[in-house]
Amino acid sequence: MKDEYKRIDFRDQISRNKNKSVFLMIIIFCVFVLFGYVISLAFEPGFFFLIMIISIIFSVSYIWISFYNSHKIAIASVGAKKASRTQHKQFYSLVEGLTIASGMPMPELYIMPSEQINAFASGRDPKNAVICVTDGALEKLDKRELEAVLAHELGHVANYDIRYMTLTAVMVGMIAIVSQIFLRSLWFRGGNDKDKGIFIVIGIIMAILAPIVVSLVQMAISRKREFVADASAVKFTRYPLALINALKKIQADNFPPEKLVSKVVAPLFFANPFKKLGSTHPPIAKRIEALERM
């Protein structure tokens, strides 16, 4: 009875972590609003609106261009090559089977040169998605394990995680730009507004701490999305043991840090390519624990 009580349904896991992701995004939005309010008290309203307009234009423009070409940027950055139907028959057949079962369009498939067991998905929507696996994943995972990893990546695509994380990146980018503009603008202020001194001090503290706080929240959102993708993989395959075994192989694999991967692309991967905990990926042990309860 005790074990049954602890068991969770993959649908509950997906719903719970999606709700947590939304809550964390609300925190980022609240920090942005609070920071903006402090700046409006420290400066004239006209200057405040100028700062907000500049930060929104710059962050949205930069992130939108990156978002629209996210799949191309990700593939090019890791030196991946398009998978061959003749040389990678199993790769193609597994993805085709999963897309048919889930009703999703077929993504473009790529291979990345690496001994690590890893994979990633990218693309602004299911119609423009790509899935890339490493040579190590194809060599070291059996058929069921590889299918589970691919199902995880399709879970990211199905849940529009790239779009979700792009929205988060826009909000984080706006806070970072506002912080920089605010701190630099202090050099051009006079010392006449003594009554606003306290708000300027609060603004400086927030300008330093806000980007750090929202970056930590952004990583927390990324970790929640990994749990959602794991649960989605169980939804597609109905076999959590395969994903558990794949994660255990990654845990036991003594691979060196991946030099081809930049820190910008790293959050897309199935497992952290730098093998560091406490970043954009939850610890593998916790992912295994969650899967064992499904």
Q: What do these coordinates show?
A:
The structure is a single chain. Residues 1-5 have low confidence and may be disordered. The protein is mainly alpha-helical. The radius of gyration is 22 Å and the shape is elongated. It has helices spanning 2-6, 10-42, 45-68, 70-77, 89-102, 135-140, 143-158, 161-185, 197-237, 240-252, 284-292; strands at 81-82, 108-112, 119-122, 130-134. The chain has a four-stranded mixed sheet with strand order 1-2-4-3, with helices on both faces. 66% of the residues lie in helices and 5% in strands. It contains eleven helices and four strands, in the order H-H-H-H-E-H-E-E-E-H-H-H-H-H-H. It has one domain.
List the helices and strands and how they pair.
Layout: H1 2-6, H2 10-42, H3 45-68, H4 70-77, E1 81-82, H5 89-102, E2 108-112, E3 119-122, E4 130-134, H6 135-140, H7 143-158, H8 161-185, H9 197-237, H10 240-252, H11 284-292
Parallel strand pairs: 2-4
Antiparallel strand pairs: 1-2, 3-4
Helix pairs in contact: 2-3, 2-8, 2-9, 3-8, 5-7, 7-9, 7-10, 8-9, 10-11
What's this, in brief?
With 294 residues, the chain is mainly α.
